[in-house]
Amino acid sequence: MSLANVDKSELMDQVKQQIAVANAQELLTQMTQKCFKKCVNKPGTSLDSSEQKCISMCMDRFMDSWNLISRTYGQRLQREQSKF
Amino acid sequence: MSDFENLSGNDKELQDFLMIEKQKAQVNAQIHEFNEICWEKCIGKPSTKLDHATETCLSNCVDRFIDTSLLITQRFAQMLQKRGGSGDL
Questions:
Q1: pTM greater than the 0.90 cutoff
Q2: A17-56 residues touching B, CB cutoff 8 A
Q3: B36 inside 8 A of chain A by CB
Q4: From 1.10.287.810, 1.20.1740.10, 1.20.1270.10, 3.30.360.10, which CATH number describes the B2-86 domain?
Q5: What span, in angstroms and rounded, lies between the C-alpha atoms of A82 and A78?
Q6: Interchain contact, A8 vs B13, CB within 8 Å
Q7: pLDDT tens, A30-73?
Q8: Beta carbons of A58 and A34 less than 8 angstroms apart
Q9: ∠ CA A23-A19-A8 to the nearest 5 degrees?
């Protein structure tokens, strides 16, 4: 079975998009869990301003951490590959 | 991905594309996992930037986790070998 070229590039785009959505969902889920844990110690009747501030810093640091780990892992993969 | 493998059949371009996307997704999943583990190990109270010590902790955490995984895999294989065909672990 072969796909027409138009269908194929459409399929490829869809695959890429679905992966991107899944990736964003994973980030969002983890970020919410980690930052809730860090910033909301005693849940009150609303999120107070210091909790909100903590959450937005936590989100930024979470992305920093993700990016740093991505770079570190990339470098490690390259080192491991150059061993062979 | 197995549905895709059927669908892509003998279409080389599509097969290659899917293989690469699959690998990228696996690397990404691994980064999520590392970030989850190393965040717990290295991050204290969130502040305005990641300080140098935290950055070092995060990247050491990734490398040592991989080392640990390699070491355990190796030792585990030895364990299995030593016990030979005795059947129980």
A1: no
A2: 19, 22-23, 26-27, 30, 34-35, 38-39, 54
A3: yes
A4: 1.10.287.810
A5: 6
A6: yes
A7: 999 999 999 999 999 999 999 999 999 999 999 999 999 999 99
A8: yes
A9: 170
